[in-house]
Amino acid sequence: MILYHGTDLNSAANICKQGIDLGKSQKKLDFGAGFYTTPDIEKAKKRALLKSEGNAARARIVAIEVDDVRFASLIKKEFNNANQEWCEFILINRCGKALLSVMAGRDHNLDNRYDVVCGEIADSSISSIVYEIKKGKRKAEEVNYSELLPDSLRSYGYQISFHTKKSLSCIIKCSCDRISERKVR
Q1: Low-confidence residues of the chain: pLDDT under 50
Q2: How do residues 21-40 score in pLDDT, each as one tens digit?
Q3: What is the rounded CA–CA span in Å between residue 10 and residue 23?
Q4: DSSP, residue by residue, 122-143
Q5: Burial group, residue 185, by CB count within 10 angstroms (0-12, 13-18, 19+)
Q6: pTM to 2 decimals?
């Protein structure tokens, strides 16, 4: 399996020379702190341009080859579609432990219980809801999940995130490339 990580020149060089450092991950991401990839190179290109502030000369794609056998043995959480469980999982991971008391019993990955999490990429509407919850403008239990679910005809893409050292052990090799000069939509 080949996966892609879009980033900037410095980060890509560091990943390819030093390896993936989970300690450098932001903490409150969709599926928890981790290393995020996608099987869709076009999504990775868009992310690379975002991370390099639109400077295509500094945008890089890190291609990651994964050992399928080792990957199959990992503890995984997979969301086959964006549903209420997916929304709750993302809200807890993005809001952090403070939300656990309100959403007791809901699944999350704040403790890296999953080596790998796979599922739909969330759009900015979830970021807005997380902001409102954190600022006390909205209560988590009042969230209408239908407003967070992407339109059934629209997908923001698929992501596969690695959360533990064990998960990184299934990565065979990383390579770093410039994004193509072809225009990314």
Answers
A1: 182-185
A2: 999 888 889 999 999 999 99
A3: 16
A4: P-HHHHHHHHHHHTTSS-GGG-
A5: exposed
A6: 0.90
